[in-house]
Sequence to fold (499 residues):
Amino acid sequence: MLVGYRATLDSLKCDIYAAAVRTLANALVEELRAALGADAVIAEPHQLVVYECDAYTLERHLPDAVVLPRSTDEVVTAVRIAARHQRAIIPRGAGTSLSGAVLAVDGGVVIGTARMNRVLEVDARNRRALVEAGCVNADISAAARPYGLHFAPDPSSQGACTVGGNVAMNSGGPHTLKYGVTTNHVLGLELVLPDGEVVWLGATRESGDDVEGYDLRGVVVGSEGMFGVVTRVLVKLVPVPPAWRTMLAIFPGVDEASRAVSAIIAAGIVPAALEMMDQLITQAVEEAYRFGFPSDAGAVLIIELDGLEAGLERQAERVRTLCREHGAREVRHARTEGERAELWKCRKRAFGAIGRLSPSFLTQDGVVPRSALPEIMRHIRAVSEKYGLRIPNVFHAGDGNIHPLVLFDERDPDQVRRAVAAGNEILEHCLALGGSVTGEHGIGVEKIDFMERQFRTADLEAMRAVRRVFDPVGRCNPHKMFPGSKRCADFQVRKQAAA
Ligand SMILES: Cc1cc2nc3c(=O)[nH]c(=O)nc-3n(C[C@H](O)[C@H](O)[C@H](O)COP(=O)(O)OP(=O)(O)OC[C@H]3O[C@@H](n4cnc5c(N)ncnc54)[C@H](O)[C@@H]3O)c2cc1C
Fold:
């Protein structure tokens, strides 16, 4: 009798709480609509579903609202309204993050930059461009190309991801082996702090590239959207290389290809890009795009050299020799710009080809010393057998930055459990080999549990202290990166089951 009474009381309390939350959310949405216009605010549950996750689909949370501002002023307005209602703000670009970096874990207001997508200025003389944060990465290079310039960071998602997302994740790409990652190409940025104050950090349109004082711009790059909303970015442009040699080296297996990678770097050659695809992904890519990859290749390397024409052929010959010495049975060349573009299209769309192999996949992002590539590849094969899941690999071999793609079916809880466990075991091994649990995809919610293994408590506290400088109350993109964050109960259950 007493038990039944308590249950009724608990359920009544839940209903009252839910009603109160709905009322508060309605007031928030009404204020946002009044300030920004109805077309700038999304709050219908069936529309919010689009924003419940990013490209890491294992965890999902509905925000209270999504706003799509058109200017820095509108971002400030949205941020201030969210602060008044004590709701979190979650900056969002294209939502291509692979680590659950834009989840509204405890609700809140997603601030999407889709309508702030312009290249505002290309300053060819000073090799810079001023762009809005929602500008798609590839659009910057498209705008700079008439001046013989481009924006070097080229994530494989560059046709969709935004420069704001690149800044937040300090993104890399195939060509960042030679040219450096996003942080090496951001000169300055405008940031709306979580209390609505607007600051400009780093170089300005009027200044030189170097500025005095602390490099706060450098601190914001890689802060995973937890310091405020980036609204404009002053990026560095670099000349389009005058000449290139793009090669496809075909190996019997990943061990031989990995050894060739180490040999090329050890020879003092820094290719613009040095990418590896193993057999499973090569076969999927070939089936999808019909490039002419041999289906019996154990692994292929895509190697690009660029720079001045003088000396380039000699370097290419050296690379060919090293590949052959390490077991390559064939080294092909892109003969025309068209062939080169086709090859890169295949590499950059490799994740897309996975749809032919599996309904779901989990993209891991670990780093190992280059010399440990054969060892981590062997470990991935062992993990694949242990959990009975296929794990193709396509990755930035020159950086030792691996991307094992754990294939599974999200509709089968046992496969989900095995996929999470397999991914964790691979990352554990990266740490054991002296590497890291992320090279470029960030921590998000996905890798929170690894932070205490990778960093000392004092290091984590120092990071939290830096964050408090920008966001004293932890309003911006909360529940990411730091252990102890609130997590979705369902996800915790899955993780415990996986352990
Ligand atoms: C097929 C595929 C290939 C990929 N290849 C690569 C690759 O080669 N290299 C690589 O590094 N990554 C890669 N990624 C991951 C992803 O594309 C990058 O992390 C990218 O930079 C995310 O940009 P986005 O605009 O989609 O950001 P989102 O996913 O929307 O957000 C990512 C993070 O940035 C924050 N953020 C976004 N905009 C802002 C802003 N204006 N102000 C403050 N914070 C902001 C968010 O809060 C979140 O923490 C790939 C992803 C996919 C799906």
